[in-house]
């Protein structure tokens, strides 16, 4: 009986950690970091990603992430992409995926949730919001040109 309670407690504490993992880094080349809880760590292949993580790539960096619904997101060099919201029900395929590309280039291939509900995936940029209704997209956000100095 005591052993059963230990197992139940262990599972109760382990469940939140597993539930927060929404995907995995599949490719990390060059300078790639994940910003999480105010800290930046080097991204490695196999590293879990979570809602509110921010992928940051350097001039020679690129990364690919596979999410639990089989959506694929790739970010190119000099990019900043945040995972703002993600939930997915593997039974019904219902879910919601919202991300923000602050700068750089992003390519995405939608997964099961978009097949179930075409409006479920949205990518924001500084000037627009895109609802991914098809299966693939590529978007690029350039840094604004600096204003000329006033004389």
What does this structure look like?
With 151 residues, the protein is α+β, with helices and mostly antiparallel strands. It has one domain (25-141): Jelly Rolls (Sandwich), CATH 2.60.120. The protein has two helices and twelve strands; from the N terminus they run αβββββββββαβββ. Strand 6 (62-67) and strand 7 (72-75) form a beta hairpin.
Rg over alpha carbons: 18 Å
Distance between the termini: 81 Å
Main sheet?
12 strands, mixed
How many separate helices? Answer: 2
Kindly provide the name of the CATH class. Mainly Beta
The domain count comes to 1
Question: How much strand content do the residues show?
Answer: over 45%
What is the number of strand segments? 12
In helices, the fraction of residues equals 10-25%
By CATH, the topology is: Jelly Rolls
Mean pLDDT: 84
Quick take:
Helix content is 15%, strand content 48%. By secondary structure, the chain is α+β, with helices and mostly antiparallel strands. The protein has a single domain, classed as Jelly Rolls (Sandwich), CATH 2.60.120.
Keywords:
globular, 151 residues, 12 strands, alpha+beta
